Amino acid sequence: MKESPIGVFDSGIGGLTVLKEIMNVLPNENIVYFGDTARVPYGSRSAETVTKYAFQSINFLLEKGVKAIVIACNTATARSLSIVQQKYDIPIVGVIKAGVRTAMELTSSGVVGVIGTEGTVGSRAYELEMKSISSRVQVKGKACPLFVPIVEEGWHDTDVAEIIAHRYLDELREDGIDSLVLGCTHYPLLTDTIQRVVGEAVKIVNPAKETAMDLMDTLQKHKLLNERGAQPSYEYYVSDNPEKFSQVGEKFLNRAIDGIKLVEIQKY
Amino acid sequence: MKESPIGVFDSGIGGLTVLKEIMNVLPNENIVYFGDTARVPYGSRSAETVTKYAFQSINFLLEKGVKAIVIACNTATARSLSIVQQKYDIPIVGVIKAGVRTAMELTSSGVVGVIGTEGTVGSRAYELEMKSISSRVQVKGKACPLFVPIVEEGWHDTDVAEIIAHRYLDELREDGIDSLVLGCTHYPLLTDTIQRVVGEAVKIVNPAKETAMDLMDTLQKHKLLNERGAQPSYEYYVSDNPEKFSQVGEKFLNRAIDGIKLVEIQKY
User: Fold this and answer.
1) Which residues contact B48 (CB under 8 A, 6 or more apart)?
2) B128 partner at 20 to 30 Å CA-CA among B63, B98, B143, B147?
């Protein structure tokens, strides 16, 4: 069981920013990654649809024999984490708690910004989690639907990205936020642009690293850490367009992605 | 049979720009519209996936008793029209031939631009169709993946839209195009911005109106025109998020959209 892989899934390639941190923090672990590229993006879809997609991704990963699962997608975490945790026996870790904890530690003003997809911001999942830690925190959420396509187009370091970031983020700056959670796994690639737009005084929180730490804690608690020092195996599955996943994904993961396999996810 | 509805489908809301023209040109016709909002966008998906989705949309519309079908989506037309026309007995009209014909009539330089999704431009469907009319035409294709999210965000008349349009279209202008096909049903909302960017000398072709004319000819040829002057009925189905379809769709259609129903399209 300890040598079984960890299952990681996302709506597409964004989850690779989380995968990268998991690979760093847990270098012994075997991993199976699934990107639902046939149905990306999740951000504008209804809660019911995203929850159905999460169930299918988990069923697929269970068939691959995973010992634990990471939902490396903010929208899927916001919409489905508590539901799927009740349904399955193995540990399931989302990306939201990690970002919440870090942002709450970093804020002095008590005014925290959260940016993400329409689904994530609309669900108010970050806000509810933060308020459960401190009822005095003020959470300013802002959906930024153009950030994902900007990153996928490879334009995250351009003037276009900066103008769009101003449109979305100027109001958060005026609201007096002093920390800002990147509540979508695509957004870490926009960190430099976002930092310029919100100013150096605002601390930017990328939940990916903290999520990897959460996963380590969870595996430890369940005595599931892989202690064998062998070269880990990484397997990649997508529901459409493996070529594009490989091309764009390498930017996210900073390493080559080979042998990507197609899966008919709607069968699960 | 003549009073049966026309079936129109698209990956989401873009097809409403085509629907609007059909309503104008054929005011007696009953219409069933299906928008595949659970799986939008089609533009970045593989040919196999888009073709499978087209079959499902057509099977659903046939169950609604339609007498003819319009594929109001350039990507789905490019990827699947010839395949589905072989498979089904009823007339099926796409959006590409209409745009090709108009652009070929309008060009003097013989250099024609075509903009659309990655799927449409990558398929070279417009180019092959144009070359079959005149082998001397030069076709300059350009995928513009950010145009769809810009329109869905309601930013089609902003400085952001104009900067993005310059990034995509300046090279077409330098290539000497004198007509430009809007090869994606979202793009008509960007007409003013695109016209400013490419200059007044370039004629912009919106295939929607010509597609409605093609449909009229086809119905006439098959003796399927509805000659009863009663108030037509319009039905709308989507695979996800009817509320959002209604909100955003009204901008496309310039009329209220009521009674939208959900359909589980993967069952078809």
Assistant:
1) none
2) B147
The residues that bridge with B113 in the sheet, in sequence order, are B140, B180
- Of the pLDDT bands very low, low, confident and very high (cuts 50, 70, 90), residue B152 is confident
ipTM: 0.88
Q: CATH 3.40.50.1860 residue ranges in chain B?
A: 6-94+209-267, 96-207
Rg (CA), chain B: 18
Take residue B255 and report the two structure tokens written for it.
């009329």
CA A99 to chain centre: 10
Q: How far is CA A184 from CA A176, A179, A228, B169, in A?
A: 21, 15, 33, 30
- The residues near B19 (Cβ < 8 Å, ≥ 6 apart) are B8, B31, B33, B72, B253
Interatomic CA distance for residues A261 and B12, integer angstroms: 28
**B49 neighbourhood in chain A, CB within 8 Å:** 38, 240-241
For chain A, the 3-state helix, strand and coil shares in percent, each to the nearest 5, are 50, 15, 35
d(C-alpha A75, C-alpha A96), whole Å: 9
Compute the distance between CA of residue A230 and CA of residue A224 in angstroms, rounded to an integer. Answer: 16
Q: Supply φ then ψ for residue B245, to 5 degrees.
A: -60, -45
Q: How far is B209 from chain A (nearest CA, A)?
A: 29
Q: What is the CATH number of domain A6-94+209-267?
A: 3.40.50.1860
**Element at B173 (helix H, strand E):** helix B159-174
> Would you list which residues of B are annotated within the binding site for substrate?
10-11, 42-43, 74-75, 185-186
Q: What is the Cα gyration radius of chain A?
A: 18
Virtual CA dihedral for A145, A146, A150, A153, nearest 10 degrees?
Answer: 80
- Collapsing DSSP states into helix, strand and coil, what is residue B8? strand
Write the pLDDT tens digit of every residue in B113-133.
Answer: 999 999 999 999 999 999 999
Q: CB A83: neighbour CB atoms within 10 A?
A: 12
Burial class, B100, CB count within 10 angstroms (exposed 0-12 / middle 13-18 / buried 19+): buried
Give the number of other Cβ atoms within 10 Å of residue A11's Cβ: 31
Q: Which of B22, B8, B61 is nearest to B207 (CA)?
A: B22
Interface test with chain B among A56, A164, A264, by most B beta carbons within 10 Å? A164
Instruction: Let me know how long chain A is.
Output: 268
Cβ contact, residue pair B46, A146, below 8 Å: no
> To 5 degrees, how large is the angle CA A207–CA A209–CA A214?
85
- CATH architecture classification, B96-207: 3-Layer(aba) Sandwich (3.40)
**Could you state, in chain order, the average pLDDT of each consecutive group of 10 residues for chain A (268 residues)?**
96 95 96 96 92 98 98 96 97 96 96 95 95 96 95 92 97 96 96 97 95 97 92 96 91 91 95
